[in-house]
Amino acid sequence: MDLRTYQWEVIAPALEGKNIIIWLPTGSGKTRAAVYVAMRHLEMTPNAKVAMIVNKVHLAQQHYDKEFNPHLKDKYKVIAISGETEQRGFFAQFVKSQDVIICTAQILHNALHTTNSEKHVEITDFTMLIIDECHHTQKDSMYNKIMQIYLDKKIRNERKLPQILGLTASPGTGGATNFDSAVEHILQLCANLDTWKIMSAKISSKDLKNEAQQPRKQYDLVPERTVDPFGDKLKSSMKIIHEYLGDFDFVEMDFGTQMYEQKVVKMEEDGAMQKDRRKRTCALHLRKYNDALFIHDTVRMQDALESLHLFYITEKFIKNSDEPTDVFLWKLFNENSNTLMELSRDKNNENPKLKKLEEILKDHFQVASGSRGIIFTRTRQTTHALHEWITNNGMLKDLNIKTAPLTGAGYSNQTKHMTQNQQQEVIKKFREGSLNLLISTSVAEEGLDIPECNIVVRYGLMTNEISMMQARGRARDKDSCYSFLAKYGGKESRREKTNEFLEDLMKRAIEQVQNLPDREYCREINKLQTESVTERQIKQAKVEMEKKFLPEDVQFDCRNCGIAAAVGSDFRVVEDTHYVNVNPTFKVYYEEFGPPIDLQKKMVDWVPGRMIRCRFCKLQWGFIMIYKSVALPTISVRNKSFVLQTPEGTQSIKQWKSVPCWIENFDYIQYTEENDLDVSGNDDDVYDLDDDSDSDDFVDGEDDQ
Question: Do residue 369 and residue 501 come from a single domain?
């Protein structure tokens, strides 16, 4: 392997066996450097075993195809294992038989924690652990959970711990706004990864600068609409809903902002806790209007109206309710929909951001110019709306712009998702040139093997400095341009300026940490690691204290209609992840609807069936899990399906670990015996997977929002 001088410089301590973080810009060859370190480690270390962990499913195969397999296959056994590969069920066996394992952090975490001896692995089974995009090793991330196992063993003075090699282009500042806090963030990251030193190009900085040139940055700021009758009409409807609730404390200026969204989320929460269905329903509708205002501010008026139309059609079809609040809200929208339709067709009040975007694309996509670009936007919905706008724009069509959306692969019942195969197909076409413009959510910011672009547009985004640096790193072609497009004087442009300050703050903080005397640095790292272990112990003790009720004393009420549907003792947990209701009488409270869910990944022991919802108010609760041929209703509390009634009052939950009682593990044999089920497939509650021709098509993926 041919390495550049700056790559040799940053890997030098790792070749001596030290734990380091490699900090190099996007596109400068961090992964290639890591492959070389892994190769030398395999050559020099007895019984060496290397694992590279990634935070996104597609990256496992990408690193295997592009770097590890081509360079190591002649001498070593290399395998990529992710949630979409069949090998994941035999992870422990592959750890024994392979030299290099590239896998998602989730798969390694599951193997470290499982109590099944055949599937269990120890972190000490590996002699080297490479962590891709290691700046995510923070707080409760999967990376940090893995490193916590490492640190527990280190503090107990256990030997034979793996060497750690972290890779990142953007350590960030962790939300710090001053120098000392930024230094503390970098030290904490180093402590989490047990890092001897964070390495960057010093002596060979000139070589790095020539290889990873920064794009020219421009602020493309546009004024607000002079008049906005469409937006005013949406806000008028929102005002009427507040008045219907008797709420006159709202601030009309907040409409369409994230601050207002937080208010209506709190309103929905209060409505659920108080069993005030009117307040909860109005809050949900107000949030949809707020979403429409955001879409209106980002893309076209017709896109905003279409989002509302879809919501109300779905609501009407699913609920078919004669509740006074539902009737009032449907009537309000119907009375205004024709006016909104007329206003949305007025080209004089179209979004000025789109006009500016058209100018930018015209500047960079001349016929036969060979240009490539990416437009980053906030949501899947705006991604598809921008794709449609560009496709139907006659002027841009003449420039031979060939575009496609690129979004996350995680299933969502709210917005359209892409499968892993669809993602890879879009990237392949972009690489080959049959597409020359991607419109993407954050999924394309880091990790993806995307060719150099000469134009990158961040379209009305308000994110942190890490996202800014990652997106900018996609503009790697010679004389490339990075455009930030937003409203003049808006929050987005102010945040982008702040991100520039934070990037500089990050660089100064890293330099400070690099220059600390060895003794002082070690003292700080050891202190932070000890504090981290103590903090986790306190947190675990707190969790155990919060499990203070008997399962039968915790009642699950439908969040929407308040029906008492279950108690804690009705539930069991499958594979430490899925919470299922095993009480046969639960059927009285739910109904199945829609086709089987296509999660786009083949599971080891189960496939998803249909969605389930409250039989009385139609609120979605979860889905049917067909586990080893047995159909089990699985409840997702993340969707805010239930509120809890406990001996101490009503409680709202967002995740199962917050439920204040212990949930037993699911016992498959016991369940089939107690329910007298014929697992050969003759019982109504048993699904014969051998006859399900579509069972191989189910996958899930990772969301980008």
Answer: yes
